[in-house]
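Annotated sample (chain length 239).
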Amino acid sequence: MSAPDLKCSLCRGTGLVEEEPSPPHPPSYRRCACVLRQDIISNVERGLVGLSKAPTIDASPLLDKHTQNLWVTAGTEFLSHLRHVAVRRPAVWAFRVISDAELVTAWLATVAFSGEVIDPDAYMVSTKYLSIPDLVVPPDLVVLRMGVKVARNEASPEVLAEAINTRTHEGKATWLWDEPAHPLNVGHLFWSSGVGRVLTGWEHITSLAPTTPKTPKKKTDSSKKSPNRGRKTLRRGGS
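Output written by the structure step:
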């Protein structure tokens, strides 16, 4: 739990607010609003470092789709939409953005010592995740970010398909995020007909509202008088 506001009038600096009493049951408490917001922001940062600082938006077509498989082709504006979803989930909601490079690194951990696979990134063998399931199974939602890995590995499409199939087997949702400049199709490092079959039936969103900085409204200076203010006018019939 995040540090409470010591000046909060609701929890008096404890971070907890007592619920309505229900005798003979013992007292129960809930997190105060002064710590709940910080807990949610901390959870957003656990999903992807820096995500909480993405530009805010008023609405997103991704809202309420966190329990279904989704394929999103978008630029960095996707981060604002992901933030829009994440800050509206409970502070205990587990999600994570995983790059395609991390997928291959986790896969290499299981084959690096067999001598059967040659990959320029083989020296990056993961000691934290020893297999693809170790990496992709725990979160409630996994966002697979494509386009990070550049070094070629002939097993890349199979690694991606295995990650998605593992999530499907666990009954958990996956979002796949590729970019318009480098879409996941023929010629992509991770594309194959097998990957195409895995993605069959997924909703594919190819247009997200771009994020633009909100311009503050101009304030009118009430101290400035209009040209006619303060001038004497001649009334009809006056001297």
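Annotation: The two ends are 78 Å apart (CA to CA).
Annotation: The longest helix spans residues 33-47.
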